Amino acid sequence: MTYDLFIGDRTFSSWSLRGWLMLEKFGLPHRTHMVGLYDGTMEQDLKDLTPARLVPVMRDADGLVIFDSLAMAETLAERHPDANLWPADPAARALARSITAEMHSGFSALRGDCPMQLRHQWQGFTPSDAVKADLSRIGTLWAIARTRHGADGPWLFGRYSLADAFYAPVAARIAGYALPVGKTAQAYVDTTLADPAFRQWRALGLTKSYDPDPYDQPLDHTAWPGLRPVPARAVTDGTPENTACPYSGKAPTHLMETGGRIFGFCNATCRDKTVIDPEAWPAFTALRDGTT
């Protein structure tokens, strides 16, 4: 079954990120559709998905519409038991569901004062007492999950679960506003930012620009704190090494230079997402390294 996923934006829409990770990280087939969250067309774009009114929205092959992220999570877990969206251990699964539900309904100060943005890291942001209280609670939940159930890997419950999909935007907020957290929480933030799926989401988001940016702040900013991408740039001249776009297989029309080498892509988005973070894309790195 292939799902249709409707999202609002990649750089700023935290709930859209959660919905996409539920499908992407567990290998569930899906097609992504953009909704005009910041372009004024969202109501029109969702008109065939009644009663949905916010993103993300998921529609299955039979036309069934699921329009809340927690409902989406439980529907997918129910339909795809072999995908192990929740931890297998009953105690871990109960805790994962509990902290996911708390995230879904809580942390209003953090969400209100620190809207997700994946462009850069704000400098000099001063968290309120309410935001600090949210951060303290999040740190406690993460530490409990990691201590009790995290021995098998770097995620909250060792292996990636729906809890990680729900907390990815929380990690992005901590990173984007340089919020103070403990060592365990910071390690988890670093794990999220280094995840290839998260990097792909961010790179695609940065191919679109807004003027002005949503949620702009009267603050200085520095580079995004994730892994430093391999240097690359868009170019207009040169002969690409490849005769087909690594993503679509179509003839290359847009060029990129990295490491003194020229590669071609079938459109500006394919090129630009690769320029932003070349090593986030296995299809490109396989081409570059000759492992296709």
TrEMBL record:
One of its GO terms (biological process) is L-phenylalanine catabolic process. It comes from the Bacteria. The keyword Transferase applies. The keyword Transferase applies. Keywords: Transferase. Residues 3-84 form the GST N-terminal domain. GO terms for molecular function: glutathione transferase activity; maleylacetoacetate isomerase activity. SUPFAM superfamilies: GST C-terminal domain-like, Thioredoxin-like. This is Glutathione S-transferase. It comes from Roseovarius atlanticus. The lineage of its organism: Bacteria, Pseudomonadati, Pseudomonadota, Alphaproteobacteria, Rhodobacterales.
